Amino acid sequence: MDVKGKVIKLFNAEFGSSLNNLKNLDYFQAKLDSKKSDVEECLSLASSKAPSRIQAAVEDVNKIVKQTDEIKEQSENICSLIEKCLQQENKTDELQTLIDDISYLEKSAFYMQFIECVEGVSSDLESSLCSNIDEACIASYVYLKDTYTKIELTLCTNLKSFMRDTVQYWFDQIEKKLTIEYNEILKILKWPFCGNNSGAQFTHSSTTLTEFKIVTEHLFHLQLPDSLVIKSTTGLESHFPQVCLPVTLLVQPFITRFRYHFQCTKQTNRRDKPEWYFTQLLSWLRDHIDWIEKMVQPVANGTNLKKTDVKVEFIRSLAKLAVNKLYSEMDSILYDDKLFAHTVDEAINFENELRSIYQYPSSEHATVLVLSQPQFLSKWLAIERKCATEKMDMIFSSPNAWVKVVGFEEDSKITECAEKFLLLLRSISDRYNKLPQLSHRCQFLDLQLELIDDWRVRILQLLHEHFQDPLQSFVPSILNTVHYVTKVLEDWGATHLYMELQDYKVQALESANNELENDFSEYLMKDIDVSITVFDGVISLLQRLHKKLMKEIIDTAITSIKIKSKPYFNEKWFTMPGEKEIAFFSITPTGQPMFQEIYNKLHIMDEVLAKELFKQAWKDFAMQLDQFILDELLLRNQFNSGGASQLTFDIKKSLYPSFGLYTSKPEILFPLISESCSLLNMLLGSAMLLLEALETEEENVAKEVLADVSIYELSPPLAIKILKHRMDISSR
Fold this sequence. Notes:
Blueprint: H1 3-15, H2 25-42, H3 51-130, H4 134-150, H5 157-189, H6 206-221, H7 245-262, H8 274-295, H9 297-301, H10 310-333, H11 337-357, H12 368-371, H13 374-397, H14 416-432, H15 438-463, H16 475-493, H17 496-515, H18 518-530, H19 536-569, H20 592-608, H21 611-634, H22 641-660, H23 671-680, H24 684-696, H25 699-708, H26 716-724, H27 727-730
Helix pairs in contact: 3-4, 3-5, 4-5, 5-6, 7-10, 8-10, 8-11, 10-11, 13-14, 13-15, 14-15, 15-17, 15-19, 16-19, 17-18, 19-20, 19-21, 20-22, 21-23, 22-23, 24-25, 24-26
């Protein structure tokens, strides 16, 4: 280590890292000077052995002394600066203390001024209250209330508590006084307008009405801050927001009467007659709602306070009475199915009337709220299922189940079974569509879907019986019924009620899909993609039944045609006389039974099937006849020119007219027969050329050749077969 390093190490060891140790600098210098003197005495500069080394050491020591002096000077400057900073900080602390004291005094003064102001307003309010100056009382109270609202977030808990108590105290005092005044005015007005007072609403003096409106306005202004309003958080009470003071006082006489008649031992308080208290509430509402809208609502609108719908609050108060009464009765009737069902009906009718007649908003709760409670909802569902099953038993056991109902459109041929079943489903919807929660509505929807499927299964069980001729049984009526119910369900699926439930079900499936494994989630997503309405599943099953019944009817008709057609089809078509050999053509005698049977079947189908179904039926019937005559007559016989002409005459004069009653161009229904007759009646030369072209050309070219002679439905191979059934061609 060099000398400089040793010196630095020595200084660090002596003074360390604290600036306070620099005060020992004088002592350290004296110590070094003493050591220097000792060294100088020990060394002789006259020595000839080491003059250069000594000289170098002396120079190093001198440098160290010089550096020490510089460090000493710097340390003194630093100490001086530190002392000045400490002095400055002490002055700042003293100043801050003064500022804090001043601020505290100012806040205390403001606090006292605030208290004095509140006490002053309270004193003025008390004077106004004693002097019956209601307007001044309200103005002072509103000032106190607004002041409390402004300091609600303050950390001064005592001040906030003082203001809260003050506002609550004066609210109670003013409310007590105004309540007395209001009740006196209501007594003069003969409120409520019940019994002997029913006509009193039309006999009020203008002075009394003016006083009523003034006190009503004061009551509207007399409101507690939201934070002081005691809100119920348990039970059904939590679903009913507090109403304004005027409505509270207006409703009080009704509450008293309601308790007297329906919550005491009076004969009117009967569990088996819930319609009594529902009817009474609706009667009160009917007799007073117009007067409230006319006299109270304008006062509320003129207060410039938050929007208050007096009509809604009045209805809410009466609905709350019904809810509390209904809830208190439900447990005692839970095991009486008949009474429970009756009570549910009355509760639903009550709410429906509130909403339909008085436009009570859907966001407001009423009696259905009670029915949606879990213990009552499950019972309601069970009774709905039980009653629906019993009604379906009655529907199917009725002797008129498949009889057409008079009064509906004749073309629809609606049966009693269809009408009553849809009425059953609609009544269930009408009862549950006011439930506030979609999940609850979906439970009833699932019940409806179960009932529809049960209805379908019952029909299938009826169809297991053997019918020799479905057209002569009630199968057409069943088909009409299935068709009509399917159409109605399709229409229902597009309504808001069921579209909303479908959206809810889709969201529930998507939510479940996110929580399940991939394989099963894909299965759920298929349901989401395929289902457009909630009835798609049952509609698909009903449409399958519809197709089965339609096919059965058409197949049976075709079978009877086949039986009647055998003699006609076995005619010797290859030996019949031509046009030149007979004076005129007439219907082939053996064909008359078949054509008559075709006409009869069409007539019966027209009589027993709904118009839309019959339109589908005669088209399907014609299509099968077309194929049947082609297969069994045209492709199984040889035709000379007379036979071809006779067949064409029979078709045009007997087959087409039977269908001409339902369409202007019946020949379009029988393209295979029409085109085959054209080929059979074609001139021999043209027929030979056509046959040659069909046999030599490719299929696409052959189709074009057929199109040139107006043959569009027959394929080239089939056209060749028809041409070869001509005697003039097959005999060559």
